[in-house]
Design brief:
The protein is an alpha+beta fold and about 160 residues long. The chain has one domain: Aminopeptidase (3-Layer(aba) Sandwich), CATH 3.40.630.30. The chain contains 4 helices and 7 strands. Strand 2 and strand 3 form a beta hairpin. Helix 1 packs across helix 2. The protein is globular, with a radius of gyration of 15 Å. InterPro entries: Acyl_CoA_acyltransferase (IPR016181), Bact_Acetyltransf (IPR050832), GNAT_dom (IPR000182).
């Protein structure tokens, strides 16, 4: 594997916000066609990433060569976001990002996922997450049924 194809994970920086916004928007459009149409443009999403997400969450990006291919954002022990460029899926990048987040969540990790997002649910279940609860959608701005998943590390006693 050449250095250009190797993925490295690093903390996100403010300068990454426009690329993170593009990944966020493209991934949601490609993988969740059931979502309501995007109401915010790239500039608004970039501002949200820069002014809210990067300030409230510990955020990491996956980088191949000089290109950011995905990101993950952790708010306490809640995995708030994990998105990949649509062309970067199924290459182990999501697993690398998830592994980084888990390293920073030694007591475990929760997340919310839309019930319709069967691919994400399968990914997280593959990585040891279990369903804690389901919801009718009143706790997300899309008003779509979701579920809470939880990963707890196996500790040897």
């Amino acid at each position: 594997m050449s250095d250009d194809s190797k993925i490295r994970i690093r903390p996100a920086e403010e300068a990454d916000a426009p690329v993170i916004a593009r990944i966020h928007m493209a991934s949601r459009a490609a993988t969740m066609p059931y979502l309501p149409p995007q109401q915010r443009d790239h500039e608004q999403v970039t501002q949200w990433i820069r002014d809210i997400l990067l300030k409230q969450c510990r955020t990491w990006v996956a980088v191949r060569g000089t290109e950011i291919t995905g990101y993950a954002a952790l708010d306490g022990d809640l995995l708030d976001h994990l998105y990949l460029r649509p062309d970067a899926r199924r290459q182990g990048i999501g697993t690398l990002l998830l592994d980084e987040v888990r390293r920073h969540s030694p007591d475990g990790l929760s997340l919310h996922v839309f019930q319709q997002n069967t691919e994400a649910r399968a990914f997280y279940e593959h990585h040891g997450f279990t369903v804690l609860d389901t919801n009718d959608g009143d706790r997300n701005m899309e008003n779509l049924p979701d579920m809470t998943l939880r990963w707890t590390p196996n500790r040897m006693r």
